[in-house]
Amino acid sequence: MFGLSKLFSAKSVQKQPIISALAAYRSAAFAVGIEQDFIADITQNTDKSITVKLNLPFAAQSEMPHVAQFLTERLKIDVNVTASVHLKEAAKFKAIKHIVLVASGKGGVGKSTTAVNLAGSLKNEGAKVGILDADIYGPSIPMLLGLVGSEPVTKDNKQLQPFDANGIKAQSIGFLVPSDDATVWRGPMASGALSQLLNETDWGELDYLIVDMPPGTGDIQLTMSQKVPASGTVIVTTPQDLALADAQKGIAMFNKVNVPVLGLIENMSHYICEHCGEANHVFGKDGAQKLALKHGVPVLSHIPLAIDIRESSEQGKLIADDTDAVISKTYSAAARLVASTLYYQQHHNAIDVVITED
Ligand SMILES: Nc1ncnc2c1ncn2[C@@H]1O[C@H](COP(=O)(O)OP(=O)(O)OP(=O)(O)O)[C@@H](O)[C@H]1O
């Protein structure tokens, strides 16, 4: 075997140690390492440092500085890692590769806030992203993305143009139907409106389309879930008993319609004290974890109760876009995990989602 210094002083870089080191890298999103398939190029620079170019099959660009640090420490040579995102799978609906439903068993748990920040984070992780607001009871995506007052535009009187909200393609059921009418809606009407919106919007090519579902587990949510060719669902809950009981109903509902539950997001999980930095579990502790264990699904993220989140929402800005905010890193980690779960679900069966009936 060559010594490392010899390897990297050679004219053509020896790739095997780098391939092996990438395979040994571990994180929540890269649970089985970085596969050789993901490597686009390895080059040696004139200063002897190495540049690794990756072609990621799921959105996880922001993790590359960690990968670079890992390689640098392991190989004892400066390594720089760049990545672009190219999902391998064929589009499942029009030119959309994955449709992900964001649901909650009950209202007010922060489902829309989570949905929109997940969309923003997936975009920041290098993916082409859209969001469809299907919450007929209280369509809040226009407000959260600063689109209130915008009028939908059609192309050739046929296709609705999605709005561009800072790089996210957005459409809302709220632009089409007054929410007051929703109280008298039934499942088929609501799912018909959702299908129409999905079909008649000119989404173009998307890696991920996030659908903000109406809260609850009734007839409307059930028929809507059946109508959408979703790759999976993320269930948002709070640590409270009542919200968890409702989240459980959500898991059972998606089980019934064969939509894989990618995981739970525990929102308003804890509050970080501004003075001492301690985490206070205002609504209880470990609730989502227990529910997740019972149903064999992962907890994708614990999102704190944070004033910044509410304030950004009210201003129609995404906290996920504020890369200096600590909370934006939490949303990013959740987004990478959603993206990698979708990938491994299809390509490795590494993540087994087991859903029980109760
Ligand atoms: N982690 C959080 N920290 C602080 N405030 C939050 C957090 N998540 C959501 N909120 C706030 O809670 C309120 C409800 O959030 P949101 O509208 O996202 O809930 P929802 O579950 O979608 O509600 P609905 O059931 O009405 O659709 C909003 O004012 C939002 O800014």
TrEMBL record:
Binding site for ATP: G105, K106, G107, G108, V109, G110, K111, S112
GO cellular component: cytosol
Pfam families noted in UniProt: ParA
InterPro entries: Mrp-like_CS, Mrp/NBP35_ATP-bd, NUBPL-like, P-loop_NTPase, YlxH/NBP35
Swiss-Prot/TrEMBL keywords: ATP-binding, Hydrolase, Iron, Iron-sulfur, Metal-binding, Nucleotide-binding
Alphabetical list of PROSITE patterns matching this protein: MRP
GO BP annotations, alphabetical order: iron-sulfur cluster assembly
Transmembrane annotation, as ranges: none
GO MF annotation: an example: ATP binding
Its biological purpose: Binds and transfers iron-sulfur (Fe-S) clusters to target apoproteins. Can hydrolyze ATP.
Family listed: Belongs to the Mrp/NBP35 ATP-binding proteins family.
Matches recorded under HAMAP family: Mrp_NBP35
NCBIfam families in the record: PRK11670.1
Assembly and oligomerization: Homodimer.
Protein's recorded name: Iron-sulfur cluster carrier protein
Organism of derivation: Pseudoalteromonas haloplanktis
Encoding gene per record: apbC
